[in-house]
Structure formats: C-alpha cells, structure tokens
Amino acid sequence: MTKITLRYYAQIRQKAGTESETVEVPNGATALQSLQAVDHGEDFNAMLFDDSGALRPVIMFVINDVPAPQDAVLSDGDQVQVFSPVAGG
C-alpha cells in the first residue's frame, strides 16, 4: 500500500468537510484513483465526477507542487492537491 495526503481547496474542501486527509491506496494507484478511494458523500462526488463517473475536466491535480494529469502514478508520501478553478468578478 501507498500512503498519500490529499489536500482539498475551495468548493471541494467544503464538500469534503476537511482540508486534508492521509489515505492508503494500492501501489501503482493514480491521482484519479486516490479520489475514487475516498467517500465524502454524494455532493462531493457530484462536484468531481460526471454522471458516467468520469472526472470533470475542470478538476486539476498538483502532486508535490507540480501540476499533474489524472493518470499520474502516486508514490508513498506524495502530497496530492485537488483544485477546481475559481472564477470571480
């Protein structure tokens, strides 16, 4: 197993009900699979995934301070930040 830290921002943090959490994922898991491994309820899932279960294109990952694709393979100790773009006026 690989232990990583997920950090949530903006609306995702509100839906998760936490700023960060440490989770264990199988060795070789991707950034996407790390999100699929947590359960923060229907509102959280609806914000991240569309009706077919695919990650919404606006969701962005930053792994160890480097932007990363959803299929980036995680290593033990990685910090995975999960963002959705924030628009304002």
TrEMBL record:
InterPro entries: Beta-grasp_dom_sf, Mopterin_synth/thiamin_S_b, ThiS/MoaD-like. CDD domains: Ubl_MoaD_like (cd17040). SUPFAM superfamilies: MoaD/ThiS (SSF54285). Pfam families: ThiS (PF02597). It comes from the Bacteria. This is ThiS family protein. The lineage of its organism: Bacteria, Pseudomonadati, Planctomycetota, Planctomycetia, Pirellulales.
